[in-house]
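Below is how a single chain appears once it has passed through the pipeline. First comes the sequence as given, then the structure the pipeline wrote out for it. We keep one example in the README because the format questions we get most often are answered faster by looking than by reading.
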Amino acid sequence: MSALTYRERPAAGDAAGLLVLHHGRGADEHDLLGLADVLDPGRRLHVVTPRAPLTLDGWPGHHWYVVPRVGYPDPDTFWAAHRKLAAFHDELWERTGLAPEQTVFGGFSMGSVMSYALGLDGSRPAPAGILAFSGFVPTVEGWQPDVAGRAGLRAFVAHGRRDPVMDVAFARAARDLLEAGGIPLEYHESDAAHHIDPAHVQAAVDWLAGTLALQPR
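Resulting structure:
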């Protein structure tokens, strides 16, 4: 049994792919569950939303890692979450019969960081795509993004220029890193703050369908 609590939204029929949505700081497994029907209105995908393993005194909700400085996760809590999330993904693939190449890792804020952390880790199976809303590629001791070795991976990055929590410079740095590694990227900016801009949603829906080669029902 998984060490992480989670929720699921099954596909309407046989699942054509797997979408794992990682929530942001201080939220839980319920936070992005409603996004499943928005991103996958045809219900072609099996969608899973895990809960981060960490709780912090004085902070609400659940966290993937401690934040000593934005962009630079605390190594101990980051690696603890990384191990649990890696095991969770492995269990999902085994249980659902869906493969990494049929999987997109998505998330918002801190959840996007974990999507990058698992999706760009050269020691882990490469997913089909990374869907990153308002996040960053982490800088953390012992971890390096493997962009050159992620054949078949695609990415979607969306960020607000008025984000007071994670500066848009992080998204631009991710864009430059991914493009330099030859990863096909769809990049969006808007004047949004730290939230998922509705203006980016249809582009994300189209990108997700294209990444997992979904056909309309």
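The chain has a mean pLDDT of 96.

See the next section for the split statistics.
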